[in-house]
Design a protein that fits this description.
The chain is α+β, with helices and mostly antiparallel strands and 128 residues long. It has one helix spanning 104-127, and strands at residues 4-6, 13-17, 22-25, 31-37, 39-44, 51-54, 58-61, 67-71, 75-81. The model has no long low-confidence stretch (mean pLDDT 76).
């Protein structure tokens, strides 16, 4: 059975996590996650990408959404307040987004159809 530490407001400090234990950091908590020992997985509700961190790595948690941190084995993490000069990554106005897995086959077919159309058009112009 996994246990979970959930905070209504930011709770900073060092936490020792057992295998499968999770920590939930609230939405508006700007914090820096430091991994002292072990491997953890972090995911935020407003971010499409998940992050794996091992000992010695850090991650700045934005206020995009709730962040769930889960240990894969015994781990020691530290949550510290983010410094005023910590750079928060801002998404560009136009950027590539991952497509859902169920669209992989459809996307491949659309790309193939576009390529075949392009080649057919080029071939018809070459013979005219």
């Amino acid at each position: 059975m996994t246990s979970m530490l959930a905070f209504d407001r930011p709770s900073f400090g060092i936490f020792s996590l057992a295998s499968g234990e999770t920590v939930v950091v609230p939405r508006h908590a700007r914090a820096r996650l430091r991994v002292h020992d072990g491997v953890v997985w972090a995911t935020s509700s407003g971010d499409p990408d998940d992050v794996w961190l091992c000992a010695g790595q850090e991650l700045t948690l934005d206020n995009k959404g709730r962040t769930v941190i889960e240990s894969t084995a015994r781990a020691t993490i530290e949550l510290v307040p983010a410094a005023a000069n910590d750079v928060v990554a801002v998404a560009p106005l136009l950027s590539w987004r991952r497509t859902p897995a169920w669209m992989d086959d459809a996307g491949t077919l659309v790309a193939l159809a576009g390529f075949v159309t392009l080649m057919a058009t080029a071939a018809s112009r070459a013979f005219l």
